[in-house]
Structures are given as structure tokens and as C-alpha cells.
Amino acid sequence: MPRRFSCALLLLCCALGVACGSDVERRVLRAIVELDARGALAQVAADDLQRLSKSSDATVRRMADFYSAKRLLPAQRETVVKRWKGLLGEEQPGTELWALITLAIGDSQRQQDQPDTDAALLAYQEILTRRPQGLPALRAAIASAEVFVAKGDAAQAAKAYQWALDLLERDHYLDVAKAGISAEALKQRMTSLGPRQDKAKIGEDITLFRRAEEFRLNGDWLAAIRVYHELMQKFPASDTIPPATWGFGDCLLTAGRLENALQYWGDFVVADPAGPWRAQAMISLSDVLLERRFDLVAAKTFIDKAAALYPASLNSQVAGWADMGYAIQQRQGLLAYIDNRPADAIAWFAKAAQCNPPRSYRTANGSVPGGLDQLIDRIRRGDSLTPPAVRAGRSETALILLLADIHQAVDDLPKAEPLYQRVIENDRSWIERVANSTGDGSIGSRLLPPQLPRQPVPRLNPTPAQIAWANYQKARIAHTRFEFNKAISAYLLVADDYKDSPWADAALVRAGILYFSNRRKPGEALTCFTRVVENYPRGEEAQRAGMYVGIIYAWGKNHAKAKAAYLDYLKKYPQSPYAKAIAEDLLPRTEAQLTAAKQ
């Protein structure tokens, strides 16, 4: 899935002439957008829309067509939706206009005489799946919540409201008040869902399981083991026992008891022949053997066993097997990729993509590739996810980073991030946690199988290039999650502590874009871009950074410096892919601004 930045980055697009027409056209469009937000689109003059529909700028024309069609609602709903779907075919998925059109299609499906809420929800989720920003995304999140409320799905509604609140808290929206959106109102709506959930009769077994899972996920494995043990003693026939048994094994692993975890999960495979958690144990065994023992053959053995279980259990329609089938086939592809069998990797990844459709989804314009589909395409092209400088280091560390890169490529970030962190810390946190968790006589300690000693955690001893790559990839994960301050810190760490790494200049450019577009700090952004131009003048990133230097000066109305930056750029990089835009658009526009200022 392509990564995007906030709507503030549209300033850069506008400066390149990509997303806007003339000043007059922009003013007319802003007026139309404001009238539409107030529900007064009928007041828009038909002549204005007609003039905009003849603009030399394609985006302006499509926006005019969008609003021209919207004025026909509700009388000609089917005609309007058909025109909008045609516009989607011309618009790049993921842009703000694309989100606006998709949102309108979803809203129209809810507002017709016989509402098609499922189709509307699909449109809203299609927007959110791309992690966009801007008011259309915010409205899509709120609309999704409203649909889930109508369906009686309080849990999903709460998630959608939380998504909307997260968007608001990122502070990308300058005019949310004008749009009639209140963060306080959203919080009240989400809170109102709580009592209905709290009043539901949740059994004590589920309560115990949730508590144990919370302890496990927060790293308090001793507390988790105590609660898991209580659950198993009180409710041996509960449906929560299989996942709790798997969780217990995960705690053993966290406690440094690798051999015990392998033995425990192995016993579980024999004891739970019916459901998907048996396969989950095999997947966990495979992951541990690969990530801790670096034993590709043994890891493949367990995944093959899980794969042998999958077809029969799927036919019995056991709950949970669809997701498990995805995990099994994704691991098969991963192991084939590591083993340098690209054809087998492609075949397995293709099966995994079919097994879990939400990772690939459709729009009115056809299929949009998910993470797996993009990974398949890269393998076909012979592209390596992990750079040669990273793979050239110690083989065990290279394997860990290769695994992390694959998990990140298919958007399995919870699996990728700890692997990057393991390289960064060289297992220090693991070793210290195990060293400080010796038995203290508690029930948690007594429950740990005593027959095998703790296994030492192998140190990876990564090279500086491998540590730099792990930090760079962690920054990209934070960026994807909209954790912008965290992403900036990680990018700058790469640029400051690993200046000679191949990713230092790219890290500075990404940090600069985040400073400018998401943190609204043009000064810090300018510093980042200038460092790239001065310190890495021959790299490809310098060509982007040099253009951004001029754009930031122009954005701050320092047109003299912008002109100087553009002229210097054209002298240094006459063959750059950005040179034409600078020579034909940015530079003339800046010179016009200078001339106007002198008059």
C-alpha cells in the first residue's frame, strides 16, 4: 500500500501545479467547498461550474464535474452516482479528491429510499484503509461509526469513533468547526456505547482471559501466567482455553524459557486437534525456531505440518481458520523467499492474498493492490526488500532484518517492529528482562517448567549499517501509524548517528517533509533539506531536497531566496526530473511575485 503524508503536503503539490489551477479558480473552488459544507450548494452559479469545467488543470475540471453532479441530488441520484464513479476512474486512488468522491458515493447509498448500508460502509472503509487525511477521511470515520451503531455493533462503532478522534488530535484540520465537527461530541458518542458493552453478561472466564492477555501484551509475563493458570483451573472447558494455552507458551518464551516454550507448544499441538490454535502453536514454533535458532529447515517443518492441517479444518468451517490459513501461507512464502525460491514465494504469497481479501480490496475503478500483491510484484521484478549493505553484515542479523522487512512489506507491523528493535538493542532488553525475572517463589515462578534451564539469548552483534537500517525502518513504521514526532526522532537519529549510511539523506528528506507538512515547522524542515543539499549533493535525494528548499522559501513569501534557490537548482541539476517543473512553473511564478512586490 503506498505511503502518504498529510493534507498540508498539498502545499508542495500546489507549488508544482499538480493539484490546483489559477488563483481565480482556487478562490472559486474554496467558495464552492464552503457552500457545500453549509449545505448551500444550490447557491453556486452554474456559470462558475461551467467555467471551471473548462479549466486547463485536470483536477479543477474533475472537482467542477463532481460539484456539478452533486447539485442534481437527490432528484437524479442514480445519474449522479454513475457520473461520480466515472470520475473515480480518472482520479488517482488515495488523493483527497478521490476520498471526497468515494465519501459522496457512500453517503448517497445511505440516503436513498432503500438505504444500502453495506455498500456505504464498504465505501467508507475503502477510504480509511488507505490511511488518508483531510476532512473527507474524518467524515468517513464518523459515517462508519454511525453505520456500525445502526447495525448494533458497538465495538466496531467505538473503533471508528476513536479513529475520528485520532484524526482530530493529529491537528491537520484548520476548519473543523466550520464543518460542524466537535471532538467533545465524538467522545460523548463513543462513551455512550460503553454502558451497552458493560451491561453485556461477560463470563468470568472471558474476564480472566482478557486480564491475562493485557498482562502478556504489556510485558508482565509473571502476572499473565498467574491469571492464565487461574483460568485453566476454574474453567477447563472454556472456549478461551486454547488461546490461553497458546498465550501461556508465549509467556514461557518471554521468560527466556525457549526449550520449555517449544515443548509446551508441542504438547498443545497434540492436545488440541480440532481448532486453529493448534496451527497457531505450529506457527509460533516455526517463528521461534527461525528467529531464535536461525534454523530454516526446522521452521519449515512446522509450517508444513500446519499447512497439512489447514485444508481439512477449513472444510469443517472451524471459526478462526480463515485468518490462520493466511498466516500459514504467508509464512510458506516468507520461508521460500529466504531460501531464494522466488517462484515458490510468489505462489504462496498469492494463495495468502486470496485467503485474506481485506488485505487487497476493490474500488469502483477496479482492484487496488494490497501489501502482499505489491510484494509479489517486487519479487517478480527481482527487487530486494533488504539492501545489499544490510545483507552484507552478520548473517543472523541479516536474517532478522530480512524477516522484518517482509513483515513490514505486507503491513504486519506488530510482527516487524520488535524484530527491528531487537537489532537496535542487540537483545539488551531481552537479556536484562530475563536476568531480572528469576524465580521468587510466587505461583508464576512455580508454574514455569523446572526441568530445563533457561537458554541464553544469542547476541546479534549488528553492523552500524544494520542498526541504521533498523532505525530507518522503525521510523517508517511510526510514520505509517501517524506517530509523527516519534518518526521524526528516528529519522534524525539515522541522519545524526549514522551519517555515512546509505539512508541518511532519505531520512533527512522524510523528516523535513514531516516537519513541514505535519508539524508545521518550516524552519526545521528547511534545515533538513539544506543538510541534504550540502552534505549529500550527488545523491538522488538531493534533487528532491533542493526543490523543497525553494518551495519553502516561496511558501514563506521570501521570493528572492526562492528565486536564488531555483536558479542554483537548475545549474546543479539540469537533468533532474523536477527541473522542468521548476523552469516552467515554480521559477516564473516566483519571478512574477517579485515583480508584483516591487510595483
Give a quick set of tags describing it:
two-stranded antiparallel ribbon, disordered N terminus, globular, 599 residues, mainly alpha, 31 helices
Q: Radius of gyration over alpha carbons?
A: 27 Å
Q: Please count the beta strands (DSSP E, at least 2 residues each).
A: 2
Number of helices: 31
Strand content: under 5%
Q: Main beta sheet, described?
A: 2 strands, antiparallel
Shape: globular
Placed side by side, the strands forming the largest sheet appear as 1-2
Helix content: over 70%
The low-pLDDT segments are 1-21, 171-176, 196-202, 313-318, 357-368, 429-455
What is the SS-derived class?
mainly alpha
CA-CA gap between termini: 49 Å
Report the oligomer. Answer: single chain
- What average pLDDT do the residues reach? 76
Helix/strand layout:
Blueprint (H helix, E strand, L loop, with lengths): L9 H6 L7 H15 L8 H7 L5 H13 L6 H12 L7 H16 L5 H13 L5 H17 L2 H16 L13 H17 L4 H14 L3 H14 L6 H14 L3 H14 L4 H16 L4 H20 L5 H18 L3 H14 L5 E3 L2 E3 L2 H11 L6 H4 L3 H15 L3 H13 L2 H8 L7 H5 L16 H17 L3 H14 L6 H14 L4 H14 L4 H16 L3 H14 L6 H20 L1
Antiparallel strand pairs: 1-2
